[in-house]
Design brief:
By secondary structure, this protein is an alpha/beta fold. It is about 35% helix and about 20% strand. It has 6 helices and 6 strands, in the order ααββαβαββααβ. The protein has a 3-stranded mixed beta sheet with strand order 1-2-3. α1 packs across α3 and α4 packs antiparallel against α6.
Length: about 190
């Protein structure tokens, strides 16, 4: 039954770690009565461990874009329970999104430009919003240095400072791993 909680893209077989995460989601569905109805129809596409530092790791769970809103309804409870199960590793849920190149052309019969939601910039912004959910991003500043490097400073809502202050390093390293972009997190003053 736990195999229903993971559906890989293109029918690939899940690895051992992904199976472990799917099993924990299935156990959570069985044991948590308040989220059982919502969690029953949800599944994941992938899960991977990301090194945050020499001693810390984070778990990034990829879900289908169409199910993201349903995951958001119960995400704080899911994350809390999974972090308990995986001995304090930070858990983040990110939607699978498609990036279409500049040379994208539609099939015959359908005309129009590439959707803005599928551009590289928009997908990276959406990944950033997924990582810090349920906290809101209240501001962003991009700093371009003389040597050509860019660093983005992201300001998060101050009301969630107590809950996520310990996760700021995790957010930055996971975002860098997923997008190859340097980012710093701070709280709005």
């Amino acid at each position: 039954m736990a195999s229903q909680k993971i559906q890989k893209l293109n029918g690939a077989e899940p690895d051992e770690f992904e199976t472990t995460v799917a099993t924990e989601l299935f156990n959570l569905e069985l044991n948590a009565a308040e989220i059982k109805p919502t969690l029953r129809n949800l599944y994941i596409n992938a899960a991977k461990e990301v090194d945050v530092s020499a001693t810390k790791k984070a778990i990034v769970i990829s879900v289908p874009y169409k199910l993201l809103q349903q995951f958001h309804k119960i995400q704080p409870k899911i994350i809390r329970e999974l972090e308990k199960k995986f001995s304090g590793k930070h858990v983040m849920i990110v939607a699978n999104r498609t990036i279409l190149g500049k040379s994208y052309s539609r099939k015959a019969g359908v005309k129009g430009p590439r959707p803005r939601s599928r551009t590289l910039t928009k997908v990276h912004e959406s990944i950033l919003e997924d990582l810090v959910f349920p906290t809101e991003i209240v501001g962003k500043r991009t700093r371009c240095k003389v040597d050509g490097t860019k660093t983005t400073k992201v300001f998060l809502d101050n009301k969630d400072k107590n809950n996520i202050e310990s996760k700021l390093e995790t957010f930055a390293s996971v975002y860098a791993k997923l997008t190859n972009k340097a980012v710093q997190f701070a709280f709005d003053a």
